[in-house]
Amino acid sequence: MEKLIRSLSSYRASIILLLIYAVGLATATLVEKQMGTVAAKMLIYYSPLFLFLQLLLVVNFLLLLSRYHYIRRRKWTVMVLHASLIIILGGALTTHLFGREGEVHIREGESSDEMVIRTTRGTRLEKLPFRLELIDFRLHRYPGSESPSSYESSLRVHVDGEVRETEIYMNNVLDLKGYRFFQASYDPDEKGTILSVNWDPVGRSITYSGYLLLLIGFVMMFLMPGSRFRKLIRSLRELRASAAMATFLLLMMIPAPFAVAATGESQRTALQYVVPPAHAARFGTLPVQFRGRIMPMNSFSSEILRKLHKETSIDGLNGDQFLLGLLSMPQQWMELPLIALPGGTISQRYQLPEEHAAYMAFFDKEGSYRLLPELQQIYHRPAAERSSADKELIKLDERINIFYQLLHHTMPALFPRAEDPDHTWVAPGEDLSLFVGEDSIFVTGIFNRYLTAVRHSLLSGDWQEPDRLLQELTAWQLDHDTASLIHPQKIEAEIRYNRMHIFRQARLGYFIFGGLLLIFAFMHLLRERKWLHYASNALGIAIFVIFLFHLYGIGLRWYIAGHAPWSNSYETMVYIAWVTVLAGLIFGRRNSLTLALATLFGGVILFVSGLNWMDPQINTLVPVLKSPWLMFHVAVIVAAYGFFGISFLLGVTNLLLMSFSHATDRMMFRIRELGIINNLSLLAGLALMTIGTFLGAVWANESWGRYWGWDPKETWALITVVIYSVVTHLHLVKRWYSDWLFNLLSVLAFASVLMTFFGVNYFLSGMHSYGQTDASSSVFVYIAAAFFAIGLLGVVSYKKGIRYLVHGS
Asked: Which residues cross the membrane (predicted)?
């Protein structure tokens, strides 16, 4: 027994238990993918064995507390951090054993005093100590869209002989006698509400106390003199500032501005008359309603061109020139090879080109739609049984339908209806009989008059009449915008954002200045020159300027959208790039190599965000995402990815140094210096990742009443925390630890970040699953190849470097 306790009270046991825990969690997500959520919970998450494993982790820390005399040694930061995790586990156990979750369904004018509880054993009813009566349910949509903006329930509460009225809507909770009610859903006819109910006053209080203590613990880690983070900073200060060598380059070719060469006589004919940029720019300022928001025509035309053509320009024409040309000369544009094709079997089957086809190519001589028979077969199949080729054909059909709507002027919506309660705008090709009197005369004529004027101006070169008609239409829009949806300042800001191409320019700057800084760092290593020091400082200033320009782009997008710009994959990638460079600026003050690598990595991330499968459009938010907790959660957890990315690059650099340099004191010094920075970056990333994960739990609990549901996204976030905890705690096991192993693990651990950010979205099930696509599959092929190369590097660095690498501390 004594031997067992001694084994369990070791740091080695901590590492082994954490690894088993991570493997168990990862296995559970795969089980859920194959067998469903219920099976994953029964077999793993809620199994006695898994609960016992978590108990062993708690016992392990308590034994370590006694064996290594944490209290006597005043390891306050360590004790606070680990005590908070024990408290969080205790709160989770309390919730699991005593908490109750259910839902209440009420129709307008009716009341209920029961909640429905669904478990793996079936469904049961539970009596509530009060009665809820639904007065009214309201669903608010974004103007001109079917997308919900908010849904609200007006309730009358009958409790303890009293009656009071209250409102429940997304992120506004009703607390009553320990029960919490959340707006979850509604009936299809919008006459009934579905409220989720949670009763967990004790478990929630315990868990939130743990979250607060965890935050305090990480603040102590950054500030307390005796913490490992502060000790590492002191160690770094003791090393004299120097540069280190990196023998790999992340430089990538910067794509030239997109352009499509003219192909065929029909294209040359259609593009003979081009709308001049000056008038196209004025056309781009016209407000339109699309996807539930008001945007300038410039944003609409750019999005349509990307959707149809998969490029940002066509034969040198921008989106505004393209759209106005199509609207004014539709017959010619119908003959152009404009619509992007998926290629492969679809192109072969319909005898189409590999890349682009004309709209008319999809219709036979009788005018029948060639794709229709196959599409009908696809739509009769369940969505789960559709192949990737089926999905590609559906996307192609969507592009053809967009072109059709443009031809018939059913998009975009240009005319606001002052009396419409939903503030829906009307397109020129839709039912204009909704307007009466002078408005009817205006809307039925203005758009056709404008297009006629454009056609005449294409021949004459005089654009005064189209300019005048645009001004007339804009003035009419402002006069009839009774809901004040048009904000001229935002329209102007969005056009400026579109035309500046901020993130593309930032990417170019990061590549140029980061690449130069990397070269100078290499030169400084070979021979120390004062001018290199000055040049590196100048490049650091240039990078900081680009960094501020990048931040300006994020802020401008925030202003335009009206919400934090990290609500989709594109925005998140842009933010990760910014945080990565921020981490480089923080840790690069003492080592120019760190800043160079971070800058290049930021450029690579922006390059990936600019790929075709990333959608850069600004979208509206679904109601559940309108929460300040979500904003903090995403901002913090994604910031962690930037620091983990720095550690990944520093780890690769050190492995390369171990592989291809001689074991001199100077080189050992460089490896040690980069290793300390790597450690600091890992600790910062781990703190942010842990805090961000639990901020997400708070968001979930405040939005729908469940702070942890074992969704694959949150599970893999927890796995990432556990994996990086192993890497940052490995130094405690002296017999295992070495500089080589630490750097290798700091690289391999990044796979968990990629799985959390990308893998869950595209390969697993759950709320965050987007479904696997060909684009995502190809990306993961490249990632797998990169980690295979890293594995080879690990072997080479071990064989060539272990001879002079002593165990570290």
From this structure: 12-31, 43-64, 76-98, 205-223, 243-262, 508-526, 538-560, 572-588, 595-614, 634-657, 677-700, 715-733, 740-764, 779-798
For residue 493, tell me if it sits in a domain: no
Say if CB 712 and CB 765 are below 8 A apart. Answer: yes
Cα 353 to Cα 264: distance, rounded to the nearest angstrom: 13
Token code pair at residue 282: 């004025």
Are 531 and 545 members of one domain?
Answer: yes
Q: Which domain holds residue 748?
A: 622-809
Residue type, 503: F
Would you say 105 and 192 are in contact if contact means Cβ atoms under 8 Å apart? yes
Close Cβ partners of 475 (under 8 Å, ≥ 6 residues apart): none
Instruction: Tell me the C-alpha distance between 132 and 104, whole Å.
Output: 9
> Do 283 and 424 share a domain, yes or no?
yes
Over the chain (809 residues), the average pLDDT of each successive run of 10 is 81 95 94 85 91 93 87 88 94 90 92 87 88 91 69 92 89 88 88 91 92 93 86 74 35 33 46 85 94 90 91 89 93 90 82 89 89 86 74 88 91 88 88 89 93 92 94 93 88 94 94 90 69 86 96 94 80 89 84 86 85 69 69 83 90 86 70 88 93 89 81 92 96 89 94 86 57 54 78 80 50
Degrees, nearest 5: CA angle 422-427-430: 95
Record the pTM. 0.71
DSSP state of 440: H
Domain assignment present for residue 39? The answer is: yes
Q: Which of 180, 199, 218 is the last residue of a domain?
A: 199
The DSSP element (H or E) to which 776 belongs, if any, is helix 774-801
| Residue 639 near residue 757 (C-beta atoms within 8 A) | no
